[in-house]
Design brief:
The chain is an all-alpha fold. It has a single domain, classed as F1FO ATP Synthase (Up-down Bundle), CATH 1.20.20.10. 92% of the residues lie in helices and 0% in strands. It has three helices and no strands. The longest helix has 32 residues. The protein is rod-shaped.
Length: 91
């Protein structure tokens, strides 16, 4: 009986370690969206500078579009961070 209990405890401990490792890997993979958001924000403001250089009279309109693009790109980053935190702290 004593050996069976020890084996079960060891297996339970291994299962908990595997679950914790899977949580950390999943959270790390969920944060990949933050890198994509950084690229998207860079593209938005690069296009703003390019558009402003081509036609300076559209400065206000282009800036409004750039802020909208920035907000949408940033929202994706926040969603990916939210998913990472959900994976870490709820499972």
């Amino acid at each position: 009986m004593g050996e069976t209990g020890t084996v079960q405890k060891t297996l339970r401990r291994k299962k908990n370690q595997m679950t914790e490792a899977a949580k950390l890997i999943g959270a790390g993979l969920a944060t990949i969206g933050v890198a994509g958001s950084g690229v998207g924000i860079g593209n938005v403001f690069g296009a703003l500078i390019s558009g402003y250089a081509r036609n300076p009279s559209l400065k206000q309109q282009l800036f409004g579009y750039a802020i909208l693009g920035f907000a949408l790109s940033e929202a994706i980053a926040l969603f990916s961070l939210m998913v990472a935190f959900l994976i870490l702290f709820t499972f």
